[in-house]
Model the fold of this input.
Amino acid sequence: MIKIALVVGASGITGSNLAEKLISEGWETYGLARTPKEEIKDLKPVAADLLNPESLELALADIKPSHVFITTWMRNDTEAENIRVNGLMVRNILDALSGKGSVEHVALVTGLKHYLGPFEAYAKEGFLPETPLREEHPRVDLENFYYAQEDEVYAAAARDGFTWSIHRPHTVIGKTVGNAMNMGTTLAVYATICKETGRPFIWPGSAAQWNGLSDVTDARVLAAHLIWASTTEVARNQAFNVVNGDVFRWSRLWNKLAAYFGVEPVGYGTSIQSLEKEMAGDADTWKQIAQKYELKEEVLSRLSTAWHTDLDLGRPIEVMTDMSKSRKMGFTVFQDTEETFYELFDELRAMKLIP
Done:
């Protein structure tokens, strides 16, 4: 029996990579987004607004997915508004599918803010969770839209009888354009600007991140993990961390990334050097670079999300993630992080997104 997937947020970094893998493994795959991507071969686009129930009802009228993968979120000005909006988006999609009786499993992608707290909290001194981060850690006593999203999944599962999985990646590295959290492409664009203008490649993060151990999540590993958990009996109704499986220090990797682009690396000095501030005046510079090398995207903000890279790298704590739970249940996919970055950069060049 063919499996039918609905990828919610199919235009994002996680959703687009997941859709490609599902299709390669023979799934009938629908991709829901406000503006669906057309370039993924055999992906069936579904245009809908998650905040508009009538839009969802109409768009999903003839679609009966067996598996739903929720990979999207919307950034708002406050965490209270994040909770309201992002919880509502999950509720609306699951309500729209409720009467069909087709859904067997729902997978929700959140992240390490589950342990670190929301944007306003996790980059500041005073709240330092124990590392490595483990699924057994209790919820933090702070407002957090990830908890609201989880609770909507739990409530709908109790109502409709489907199984669920929660996936908590660290920083996701992979190809996409126009994504709100895209460190890999942001660093590639920043390094390209440094190369073109003769500027140094300055580390934007904290001393703790520079010197401590860290990990990241390749979008392809996350895709494999989502499919594994949604089709493996023992993994159902569980929350999981998901990272590449290795650890690294930015103090080494930063120099490696600089060497790839042929730029001069500058490590941590005496304070955090905001990448958002460093790139604040680079929109015109990028447009000139794009025109010079005939790149496909001239708008810097469509490729670079420096604000989020600042938040990720500015934490006053090393961030390592424990993967023991998934390993014990049989998920054995591993990815070398250095290769993750190089393969992304090579792909961005092949796609004519960087020169």
Observations:
- The two ends are 45 Å apart (CA to CA).
